[in-house]
Structure formats: structure tokens, C-alpha cells
Design goal:
37% of the residues lie in helices and 14% in strands. It is of the alpha/beta class and 311 residues long. The protein has 2 domains: 12-135 and 289-304, Aspartate/ornithine carbamoyltransferase (Rossmann fold), CATH 3.40.50.1370; 137-284, Aspartate/ornithine carbamoyltransferase (Rossmann fold). The longest helix is centred in the last third of the chain and has 20 residues, at 285-304.
């Protein structure tokens, strides 16, 4: 594997190999006082974020450091981008400086794909850490890892509802591609204004009634309402959204006993999810963050190390 640009087209066997590697890495590091493996010693990993991030950026940095890679952070505000340098020139500069892997988050959909094309000759790998409203593949992988921990390794036939702002969510798109490829049955639950055009052609069910869908689900994934990407009225008010699509304590009671609650973060408590639900035992939100480190370690391993080795 040279790059990880999206969950769409990711071979299920390849996805499962990454997930299995992540699980092995998690077991390997369990109970260690010093969480450090020599696997990527001598490799240089650069994170290049043009959008704000906490979870993704920090977990990629920790993942690289736990694998003994040299990790360098580049932000748009603190680089020559602020002087007008193009994405292409920045990428070529980083490759020339010795980057083995560039992890990029960018507001433009398709930016990671373009970056991979520019860096192909240099042999530098590219990981998409979120591009516009297009994809966020490592988030989908860590969500799948969390679901496998809670529901069992085989997700075939598991019913998963993705709820909220699907229109603007790269997380939703990547999860639809990955979870359906792994055999899950996905239902998108959202107001019509927050569903993308052509969604009826996706390999999913679509509903506008959250209460009707909850009892049959094995997992519910709440999405962040992305107000920064909205221009115009997509719903009447935060209160109206919460009444129709927020996961309240009353709605949590409709779920099966084993059902899991996920959220990619950051959460809008009281609007998307009640605090009591977010902090309940069925919520796997902190597990997602924890698994994100191991999944991103596995991605770096498959990109930069010899896959025939056992991590």
C-alpha cells in the first residue's frame, strides 16, 4: 500500500489487515510502562494540517512517536503557506526535506489525491486526514475497530445508524464505504436538508425518523453539526434539531442492551447527544480516541514498514 486516500475502493481484505494489525499493536503495548516500538526508527512523518484538529492530529503524532518515527508538525499559519506558497510547492519542499509520509488535512475535497500525484515520483506516502466534505478514512477505520471490540470481529449483518449532518460529513462518507464493504447494514437518519444529492443511490437505507430506527440498531453514530460549512438555514434551530435528531436519555432507552453509541467529536452536548448518554457505559467515544492511536499506528506500519513482519 502506497497511500491511504479514502475508504472508497479500499479492499475489504486490506481494511481487515489494518484493523487486525491495530488490534495486535494494542495488545503488544498493553501494560507497557514505556509505549515505544522500534518499527519506524529512521522514518520521517510530517503532519500538514490546513484545518483545526485535536483528535486526529494528536493521535497521528502519538502514533508516529510510539513507532519511533521522527514526527514533524506543519501548520498553515506557521509555514510559508501564510506567505502565499501553493500546496504543491509546500508538498515538494517537504518531500525534498526527507519526508517518508505526509499526513494532510485540507478544506478542499480531493486535496489528498492531488498531493499523492505530486509526490509519487518522490516515493512519499500520503495519508488523507480529512479533505473537505469528501473523506476521512482513518476515522472510519477507528470506528470499525471500536465496533469490532464491542460487537465482535465480524460486522456482517450488523445494523448501524449514522445520524445527523450527513451532507457536510466526510466521516459519514468514509464510514458508509468501509462499513458496507465489511458487510454492515447502514441507515442514514437525517432531515432532508442534511442529506446529499444522490444519497438514494448509496448502498444504504435512508430515514427521517430516529425513534423508529433506534430499536433495531446495533450501533448509533452521531455526527457533528458542521455549522462552519453551512450557509443558510438547514434546520429551524438547535432546539428543534435536538428534539428531532438528538440522542436523549429517552431515546437511549429505545436501544437494545448491547447497542453502542459513537461520536467522532467534538460533541455538541445537549444538541447532538445528552451528556448522560455521552458518559454512559454504552458510549464508546473515548474508546474511539484510544483506538485511533492504534489504527493510525497500523496505517503507518502498512505504509512504511515491511508488511511481512509481525508488529
Amino acid at each position: 500500500m502506497r497511500h491511504l486516500l479514502g475508504a472508497e475502493g479500499l479492499d475489504p481484505a486490506q481494511a481487515l489487515a489494518i484493523l487486525d494489525t491495530a488490534a495486535n499493536l494494542k495488545r503488544t503495548l498493553l501494560g507497557r510502562e514505556v509505549r515505544k516500538l522500534p518499527t519506524l526508527r529512521g522514518r520521517t512523518v510530517i503532519t500538514m494540517f490546513y484545518e483545526n484538529s485535536t483528535r486526529t492530529r494528536v493521535s497521528f503524532e502519538i502514533a508516529g512517536k510510539w513507532m519511533s518515527a521522527d514526527v514533524v508538525n506543519v501548520s498553515a499559519g506557521g509555514s510559508s503557506v501564510g506567505k502565499g506558497e501553493s500546496l504543491r510547492d509546500t508538498a515538494l519542499t517537504l518531500a525534498a526535506a526527507g519526508a517518508d509520509c505526509v499526513i494532510v488535512r485540507h478544506p478542499a475535497s480531493g486535496a489528498a489525491q492531488r498531493l499523492a500525484g505530486w509526490l509519487e515520483a518522490a516515493g512519499t506516502s500520503v495519508v488523507n486526514a480529512g479533505d473537505g466534505t469528501h473523506e476521512h478514512p482513518t476515522q472510519a477505520l477507528l470506528d470499525a475497530a471500536t465496533l469490532r471490540e464491542r460487537l465482535g470481529d465480524d460486522l456482517t449483518g450488523r445494523r448501524i445508524a449514522i445520524v445527523g449532518d450527513v451532507l457536510h460529513s466526510r466521516v459519514a462518507r468514509s464510514n458508509v464505504h468501509l462499513l458496507t464493504a465489511l458487510g454492515a447494514e447502514v441507515t442514514l437518519v437525517a432531515p432532508p436538508t442534511l442529506l446529499p444529492q444522490g444519497v438514494r443511490n448509496w448502498p444504504v437505507a435512508v430515514s427521517h425518523d430516529l425513534d423508529a430506527e433506534l430499536p433495531g440498531q446495533d450501533a448509533v453514530m452521531l455526527l457533528r453539526v458542521q455549522a462552519e460549512r453551512m450557509h443558510g438555514g438547514f434546520f429551524p434551530s438547535a432546539r428543534e434539531y435536538s428534539i428531532a435528531y438528538g440522542l436523549s436519555e429517552r431515546r437511549e432507552a429505545l436501544l437494545q442492551g448491547h447497542a453502542v453509541v459513537l461520536h467522532p467529536g467534538p460533541m455538541l452536548r445537549g444538541m447532538e447527544i445528552a451528556s448522560a448518554v455521552a458518559d454512559s457505559p454504552r458510549a464508546a467515544i473515548t474508546d474511539q480516541v484510544r483506538n485511533g492511536v492504534h489504527v493510525r499506528m497500523a496505517v503507518l506500519y502498512h505504509l512504511l514498514a515491511h508488511e511481512e513482519e509481525t508488529p
